[in-house]
Amino acid sequence: MTTTTEQPSGTEPPHVFRDAMAAVASPVAVVTAMDDGHPHGTTVSAFTSLSLTPPMVLVSLDNRSRLLALVRRTGRFGINVLGAHQAELATAFARSGPDRFDGIPWSTSQGLPRLPGSASWIAAEVHEYVAAGDHTVLLAHVTAAEAATGGPRPLTYHQRSLGTHTPRPV
């Protein structure tokens, strides 16, 4: 399996594709992993459920990500699906730097870093790594999952900003 960032002929330039994808609302999560007792994490908007039988998720991480290198070593990660009240956390984990957990409260669940107050929590073990351009897609089996009581409204990324979904009566 090879990774390439070369653009195939007949495809849209990256800035055109980026503009088109800005119109798509995406959920926001912090993907976490543990390395020798130290928590690591990064903000992602490219994740989704993949299968119910067996329960699986899909997460996409940048090939240059330190977190991807860590997940490759451990084979495990957590997904903290953020609520609308957690935009500051999304921003903190999106910044570069080695210690994104500095000053951030967290606990351990299933041996992985978990952020309090998240809309839901998922622990997963990687089943397969799929090279995809400048990212690697992780196909993973869910080993634990929990939704927050009362279900906070989700944090979303849309039109290059963080926000939330406003439900409409059906």
UniProtKB/TrEMBL annotation:
- Protein name as it appears in the record: Flavin reductase family protein
Kindly give the PANTHER family that the UniProt entry links to this protein. Answer: FLAVIN REDUCTASE (PTHR30466), FMN REDUCTASE (NADH) RUTF (PTHR30466:SF1)
The UniProt keywords, alphabetically, are: Oxidoreductase
Q: Where is this region: Disordered?
A: 150-170
> What SMART domains does the annotation carry?
Flavin_Reduct
Q: Does the keyword Oxidoreductase apply?
A: yes
Question: Record keywords: Cytoplasm included?
Answer: no
Task: Read off the Gene3D superfamilies from this record.
Answer: Electron Transport, Fmn-binding Protein, Chain A
> Which stretches make up the Flavin reductase like domain?
21-164
